[in-house]
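Deliverable D2.4 — example input (structure tokens):
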């Protein structure tokens, strides 16, 4: 190459995404001291350093009247002080076909003595677990397998898993499976490290006490076998509280895995129905985090950084992950569902799930997820989604979030029409001549068309067995989900007004 001409290699999409994850991980590692030490404060930058992206958030046009949101302002009532900062936290991520075989070396590097391997009965028979067993055996790692994890876990199934783990007293957890498995492993880890805690101590308020996790937990490695929840990156674990017929969970940064190993070879065995449902979860993670209220509109401002919630509201860093995940999902999910041999689509969907996990894991979700919890928890018609090999009735999580999406984004669009139009554009809509006041209708129509073309999706709550007589109970099951509802743009703060809005959203979701 005479003349010394430099050749620039343009990184592909996966490389760019991994570089971005690496940057986030370097700047805010999982063991960030501000979450383990309430006395620690970041001093990464001068307060005079310009922050154009944050400034844009502070000046977001957020209503049809073009009223501007300003910076957080002084207030004598601490409960009404607006947030002024956001944090970025994510698990370390390793992405690549065949990466599962490295997990034995990871555990050896951690000097693991007793490893609790958490999976379910289906995954336990698949190649992912065979790879794990071989990897652990090569390094001489002591381990035991818990394979009784329930799909869409209940509080009692999680308690059974915790009781299995306590006598073994593992020093490392390894989760191999979908979001249900990874979430169960997170809570096994939590209650092994807090053996005397009552189960409801850490459950999100108002259903539980919402106690913060102040103690560092054991290392947790997560190997996802589905492309949906992004649980390998987040500090959130979701389950059904059976006695209340409602979904809830536990959320704190200290819950998030130490490492997520995302191996596209592990998602090849997903049935088409599971791929579709998992992908719809990615779709709604992306859309909801992209359209959540801005971080600097959230109240109250935490009195101590350890109290800052994982779900903070839309912010400039989460936006990058959320919008990219949305575009990839629209492009690759239909391909992944239709052709199990399309490895590009399978790989890109796993990457999209991880990117969305970083996005919503820091920005949060809102109405689709808040409303989905009673939908999947109540299931009055004993609906069982086709393609799921389970014995009990089930409304898969992705199905329950997507079924209300057209109504939800028709409702939230007035809060920020430009963001909703950008989302519609990701679905291939030409928005050049669309009026801002039509943003909600345009995005809702794009969602309806996408769901219909994906195939085998219920066209509203009626198809899941719900009727108008069920709406009041659905509303009452949604209201306790304040952790996500507080991020919903346009939702009333006064309880009766909120109840009426939710009722209207469920009515609009009965059929489309």
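Example output (designed residues):
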């Amino acid at each position: 190459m005479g003349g010394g001409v430099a050749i620039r290699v343009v990184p592909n999409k996966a490389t760019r995404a991994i570089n971005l994850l690496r940057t986030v991980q370097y700047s805010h590692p999982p063991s960030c001291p501000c979450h383990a030490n309430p006395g620690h404060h970041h001093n990464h930058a001068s307060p005079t350093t310009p922050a154009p992206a944050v400034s844009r958030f502070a000046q977001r046009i957020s209503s049809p009247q073009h009223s501007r949101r300003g910076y957080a302002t002084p207030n004598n009532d601490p409960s009404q002080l607006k947030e002024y900062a956001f944090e970025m936290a994510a698990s370390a991520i390793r992405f690549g076909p065949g990466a599962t075989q490295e997990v034995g070396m990871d555990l050896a590097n951690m000097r693991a003595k007793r490893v609790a391997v958490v999976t379910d009965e289906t995954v336990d028979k698949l190649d992912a677990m065979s790879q794990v067993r071989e990897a652990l055996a090569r390094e001489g790692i002591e381990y035991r397998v818990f394979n009784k994890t329930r799909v869409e876990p209940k509080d009692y199934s999680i308690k059974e898993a915790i009781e299995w783990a306590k006598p073994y007293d593992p020093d490392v957890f390894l989760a191999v499976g979908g979001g249900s498995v990874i979430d169960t492993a997170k809570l096994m880890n939590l209650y092994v490290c807090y053996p005397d805690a009552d189960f409801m101590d850490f459950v999100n308020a108002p259903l539980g006490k919402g106690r913060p996790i102040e103690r560092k937990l054991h290392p947790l490695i997560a190997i996802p076998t589905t492309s949906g929840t992004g649980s390998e990156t987040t500090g959130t674990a979701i389950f059904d509280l059976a006695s209340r017929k409602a979904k809830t969970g536990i959320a704190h940064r200290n819950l998030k895995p130490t490492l997520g190993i995302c191996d596209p070879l592990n998602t090849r065995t997903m049935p088409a129905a599971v791929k579709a449902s998992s992908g719809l979860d990615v779709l709604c993670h992306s859309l909801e985090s992209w359209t959540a209220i801005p971080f600097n509109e959230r109240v109250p401002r935490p009195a101590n950084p350890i109290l800052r919630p994982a779900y903070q509201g839309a912010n400039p860093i989460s936006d990058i992950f959320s919008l990219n995940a949305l575009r990839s999902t629209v492009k690759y999910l239909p391909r992944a569902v239709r052709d199990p041999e399309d490895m590009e689509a399978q790989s890109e969907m796993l990457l999209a799930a991880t990117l969305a996990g970083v996005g919503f894991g820091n920005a949060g979700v809102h109405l689709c997820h808040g409303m989905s919890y009673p939908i999947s928890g109540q299931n009055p018609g004993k609906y069982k989604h086709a393609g799921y090999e389970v014995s009990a009735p089930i409304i898969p999580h992705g199905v329950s979030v997507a079924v209300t999406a057209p109504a939800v984004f028709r409702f939230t669009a007035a809060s920020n029409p430009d963001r909703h139009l950008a989302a519609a554009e990701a679905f291939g809509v030409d928005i050049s001549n669309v009026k801002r006041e039509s943003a909600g209708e345009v995005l809702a129509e794009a969602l309806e068309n996408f769901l219909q073309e994906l195939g085998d999706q219920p066209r509203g709550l009626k198809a899941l067995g719900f009727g108008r007589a069920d709406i009041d109970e659905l509303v009452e099951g949604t209201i306790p989900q304040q952790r996500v509802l507080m991020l919903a743009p346009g939702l009333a703060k006064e309880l009766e007004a909120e109840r009426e809005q939710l009722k209207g959203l469920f009515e609009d979701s009965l059929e489309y």
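The radius of gyration is 22 Å.
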